[in-house]
Design goal:
InterPro entries: DUF488 (IPR007438), UCP024492 (IPR014519)
Helix content: 40-55%
CATH topology: Protein-Tyrosine Phosphatase, Chain A
Strand order of the largest sheet: 3-2-4-1-5-6
Strand content: 5-15%
Protein name: DUF488 domain-containing protein
CATH architecture: Alpha-Beta Complex
Number of strands: 6
Mean pLDDT: 96
Length: 194
Amino acid sequence: MPSLYSIGYATKALEVFIDQLHTHGVTAVADVRSVPYSPAFHDFHREPLAAALKQHNIAYVYLGEELGPRSPHPAHYNADGQVQFSRLQAADHFLTGVQRLFAGMDKDFRIAMMCAEKDPATCHRSLLIAHFLLHQHAIDVAHIRHDGALETETALEERLMSLTDIQPDMLTRHCDCLPLAWQEQCRRYAYIKP
């Protein structure tokens, strides 16, 4: 069984969210939102969420400053104001957040990184964090999809080729399409400064 998951909460009832965590044996939630509040889903504001999880014996930790999709550092943005996940993945604060995940896993916590988006393919929890963990540490995060089923980061990255319509052909090998599809999906969904 995996020890590192991700989950999105958009449009889920809190009870469904918690049931899905229990189904997969999750014992800790790492909140990776840059802003740990929701304009539409008030049960998922940082403080009431932490209290609800505690009632269900699930630990809560906020890692949005380390692993969130926004950065306070101008060097992590391109000229158009869009955050560049490849730059964030090399940042000290990001690497510190990854080490905090590892420390929790070393204590036998089964951790789910939490953000809002329904589909992990449109969220930084896959495009930024799980991508890094797979390619730098060979950790294949298991994404808890909206219906509760699991999708590995490896399978998700294959799915990105369909979502971006980047497919192998006579000139482009499959192994070359995977990073191109990831880059395109990052271009579509990475945070842009207002």
